[in-house]
């Protein structure tokens, strides 16, 4: 099933043409019928001579309602560009054509309506010449001009046949199993509840599906589906679709909301885009401009951040980062229109390069500019590298979601890029799957070298400490703990560093104590030996050996801190663990007091030890008793 749209100046006969073709009056509002002018979107459908059923979105032509027109032209397969024979090209004719070009519409027919009102054939020829001049270098340049009179039923069969032929050139609708329905109408019916309509893209819905309404996050369920007032069990991509939703009220929704499957799409306040501006005096964008963005069926004000230059001039192409006043739901390669709010005018349009940038970009950063170049005009490899570069590490599934490239193609491309060394696989088993973590070779070298430098500096500053903690390395390098952990694992497998619990250590690093420090350590060990179960506090240990030596012994595992103030020598702690296991063998149990008496310590030390043994999984507390924890 196909969906076509109408475009053209107000009162050029779009709605009348649709009524004559389909027998359905697309003007549904009382005000529209009274004024004989389409204010909001109208919908109709009919069957082509081939038997193919098509839906028609009738859009308003008056400049006051141009923003409603923008909600209707997304997702259409072709357009009927309507010009009235008695008036010829008019202002909205030009603006609608500009919008169609900016949205990337590829197919269309030119319909010269109201020919019954013009007796002079020479006039008709002049109007057609004007139209040909208008559509030069556009997707309509080679389109036929069909003379029609809806009132007299003239030329309708030729129009239907031409549509049939045209739509065979249409690209099949993509189904990536991530359906989304940008809502363009919301209403309720007695006995049914809330109904939403739109053109379904990217996948299929079926009756009973649990769905999510974005950006609000409201959860719902599809009670029923209709296409052209016919009940369906499944809604397929590209179809005009009505969904009957359960558990949501009309006043909770608005045009521009998106129906999708749960956890497949995410709202965003910020997107990266490529734009093209019209040749117009008003079509110039400066940094920090506030403009109205129309994307899908939504409209929202956005603050403009111009990337790589001070401003974008009329007729030129450039890059922006858009920061929206309210969240939008978009994907990479979605098309949009830009209008200046005052005076109201369409100034350009473009496509989404990145629906979820990591943050606000530095406008003139060479890295940022290179990334935009890759996303806007590069190969699939360039796009993957650009996405990886922004997020440092990512998975194929995240790349698929961000780039909207087919999964098989992403996986195949990533595998080739791993083989030729452009991408490093951060997996110990080196087995690529959709959840494998990836990093570009450039970032691998940059981050691994930075990590080596940070660890080396740490060893130099603290020669007696075993190594730097993971979380400290993460903060110093400026990447997530997950990234540090994955990079460290890869470096460890290559023998560059070694890891000791939560520490990162250069492979050849050794803690070496001086003779004087060794004497102090012996003094501390003798204190532990004298009272192994009534040990010195942390502060007392530091007073004996000094802070650096003390923390070196902790990082080496010779001293174990079981609380912030209580420490034990590892060999004494091992003895406590062994004896505890013997005491609690054969299903025995003991109280904290019995534990205290056995080790001849105080209640403070006994409670701290028992809580530590609970924490490491040796014992388990049941009421006032401890038992051995079952593994």
Key descriptive features of the protein:
single chain; 631 residues; 8-stranded antiparallel β-sheet; 6-stranded mixed β-sheet
Number of helices: 19
Percentage of helical residues? 25-40%
Q: Count the beta strands.
A: 34
The portion of residues forming beta strands comes to 25-35%
Q: Briefly note the structural class of the backbone.
A: alpha+beta
User: Low-confidence segments, ≥5 residues, pLDDT <50?
Assistant: 27-40, 61-72
Mean pLDDT: 86
Distance between the amino and carboxyl termini: 60 Å
> Overall 3D geometry?
elongated
Largest sheet: 8 strands, antiparallel
Rg, nearest Å: 35 Å
Describe this structure in words.
It is built from 19 helices and 34 strands. 40% of the residues are buried.
Care to give the gist of this entry?
This protein has 631 residues and is α+β, with helices and mostly antiparallel strands. The protein is 34% helix and 28% strand. It is elongated, with a radius of gyration of 35 Å.
Write the layout of secondary structure elements.
Blueprint: E1 2-8, H1 14-22, H2 30-35, E2 42-47, E3 53-58, H3 66-72, E4 78-84, H4 91-102, E5 108-113, H5 121-134, E6 145-147, H6 156-167, E7 180-182, E8 185-189, E9 193-199, E10 205-206, E11 210-214, E12 218-227, E13 230-232, E14 234-235, E15 240-246, E16 258-260, E17 268-277, E18 285-286, E19 290-295, E20 298-307, E21 311-312, E22 317-328, E23 335-341, E24 344-354, H7 366-377, H8 380-391, H9 396-403, H10 407-419, E25 423-425, E26 438-440, H11 441-461, E27 468-469, H12 470-477, H13 481-493, E28 497-500, E29 503-506, H14 515-530, H15 538-545, H16 547-555, E30 559-561, E31 567-569, H17 570-583, E32 590-591, H18 592-599, H19 603-615, E33 619-622, E34 625-628
Parallel strand pairs: 1-3, 1-4, 4-5, 5-6
Antiparallel strand pairs: 2-3, 7-16, 8-9, 9-15, 10-14, 11-12, 11-16, 12-13, 12-15, 17-22, 17-24, 18-21, 19-20, 19-23, 20-22, 23-24, 25-26, 27-29, 28-29, 30-31, 32-34, 33-34
